[in-house]
Amino acid sequence: MKFLLVFDFDHTIIDDNSDTWIVKCAPEKKLPNELRNSYRSGHWTDYMGRVFAYLGSRGVREDEMRRTMRAVPFTPGMVDLLGFIGKNKEFFDCIIISDSNTVFIDWILRAADFHKVFDEVFTNPAAFTSTGYLTVQNFHTHHCAKCPKNLCKRKVLEEFLDKKLEQGASYTQIVYIGDGGNDLCPVTFLKKGDTAMPRQGYTLEKKISQLSQDLSPVECSVLVWSSGVEIMSYLKLLLKE
């Protein structure tokens, strides 16, 4: 009996957006208007590449970025939840699928000693160049019309489960914990015995609710949360069953 926990990162594990949080490193803690206005819908990673290039050109280096990122607050109750999962790893496989990047997620999880809770992290690859600039690439290519061009979370989840099946592993239940519009695609992939946990008041909850109103509800159970403690209560119930 094993459960798969799938987490988003921004506004789910942490209580902010890691990509916008890094702007605190910029001169006067803001970006020039022409850079801010250069974002095109569905091309967030390309935009962040330009933001990182700008920060590099203004002399912002790795140490300062790391210090800034480590100050991001965790979402209420998330520290308790991740501590609980860490103590019960024999029951839970735990992955992150996020539109952030490898560098930011690694810094934040390691600083809080939560990196061992997660079996795998699927996010946009980032690295520092020899000149000290942070660069980021798209996670993969896909053909899903609903998702941003760099990441379809449903495709990531499907490929992860296929790989696990090849290794002879399957899950009693998948629990998907997220908040954003790009979490809807993987949630629509979940089956009757699975559970989607959208964060209260955020886009994912609204989109799931809209599907019900349109009479095309998701197949899985839906449990709304506002604190990691509520997620932990649900996981404790699963272990009792």
TrEMBL record:
Chain coiled-coil ranges: none
Single GO MF descriptor: metal ion binding
Requisite cofactors: Mg(2+)
Pfam families per the UniProt record, alphabetical: Put_Phosphatase
Stored InterPro entries: HAD-like_sf, HAD_hydro_PyrdxlP_Pase-like, HAD_sf, Pase_PHOSPHO-typ
Keyword Hydrolase among UniProt keywords: yes
Residues that bind substrate: D19, D99
Record CDD domains: HAD_Pase
Catalytic site positions: D8 (nucleophile), D10 (proton donor)
Positions of Mg(2+) binding: D8, D10, D179
Keyword Hydrolase: yes
UniProt keyword terms in alphabetical order: Hydrolase, Magnesium, Metal-binding
Protein name: PHOP2 phosphatase
Family: Belongs to the HAD-like hydrolase superfamily. PHOSPHO family.
